[in-house]
Amino acid sequence: MIPAFIITGYLGSGKTTLLLNTAKEHFSGKRVAVIVNELGEVGVDGRILKNAYSEVLELPEGCICCTMHTEFEKALTELKEKYNPELLLVETSGSAEPFPVMISLQNLGCVIEAVICLIDTKNFHLYSQDDTARHQIGSSNVLVLNKTDLVDEDTLKQVEDIVVSLWEKYLLRNLFTNEPVFKSFKLYKTSFGKLPDEVFSGVFALQEKLYHLNDKDHNHNHVQQVVYFDKPLDYEEFLNMVNNLPTNIIRLKGILKLKDLPEALVVNYSFGNLDTSYTLPHYEGRSFLVLIRSFN
């Protein structure tokens, strides 16, 4: 049976950064396969993670939690047969809930070691009312308050209190017995998604047999637009574009080739915050940016 970790969290919470740091610090020398699910036809995270992991499978069209049960299970079966990974990581879309992924993994004989939910402490107040974000928290047994370097102690404590109360309110329950799937959770406070060894050592393994919950509508309140660039951009030109984004753009990510920079730049922007600290030394594809806008 293959051990599996599910990485969930709202748009821009730091899931891909966590996976990059996890590969370096915890999984060196292991055959680790990653399944990445993103809305839209362009898989940014998959292209980035291929520089860090042995095998990366992208499921970029549609959402696992809504329409992709069959595709996900088929892809996972093929991955197990062809690659025989020692460990599986599944990064869900930022607008997806992890429960259907948990069901599929159990159906295919995987042991769910942990469901890890990342929370963007700096911007949590901007999405804390979103139902998907709340169910992501309630469906996880490892809660990670990320980007703590960007907030003060009072803000961090406020976010922690809200997250704990949301976990208790939205806790995933067995449909037939009404018993909680998780008896407890572990909370970590970190930056750049860096976590200790114990998170990946199996101490949080899910033992409960899962059953489908009551069906409910699951609507995505986001739309994606992809912009391609045939020539390298000037950095100031790029910054000017970011500074003049429409107010309904809540997420921007992509890979850019810039003038006078030898390596492609990984772009991450969410809720007004821009991060360009990661580069791809051997990227040969086109420059592109994915803009995710809210239509609430």
What's the short story on this structure?
Residues 226-292 form the CobW C-terminal domain. This is GTPase, G3E family. With 296 residues, this protein is of the alpha/beta class.
| Class from secondary-structure proportions | alpha/beta
CATH topology name of the largest domain: Rossmann fold
End-to-end CA span: 42 Å
Mean pLDDT: 79
**CATH architecture heading of the largest domain:** 3-Layer(aba) Sandwich
Q: Which CATH top level class of the largest domain fits?
A: Alpha Beta
Could you explain the architecture of this structure?
With 296 residues, the protein is of the alpha/beta class. The protein has two domains: 3-200, P-loop containing nucleotide triphosphate hydrolases (Rossmann fold), CATH 3.40.50.300; 222-294, CobW-like, C-terminal domain (Hypothetical Protein Yjia, Chain: A,domain 2, 2-Layer Sandwich). The chain is 27% helix and 27% strand. The chain contains eight helices and twelve strands. The strands form two sheets. It has a seven-stranded parallel β-sheet. Helix 6 crosses helix 7 (153-169). The longest helix has 17 residues, at 153-169. The radius of gyration is 19 Å and the shape is globular. Zinc chaperone that directly transfers zinc cofactor to target proteins, thereby activating them. Zinc is transferred from the CXCC motif in the GTPase domain to the zinc binding site in target proteins in a process requiring GTP hydrolysis. Belongs to the SIMIBI class G3E GTPase family. ZNG1 subfamily. Residues 226-292 form the CobW C-terminal domain.
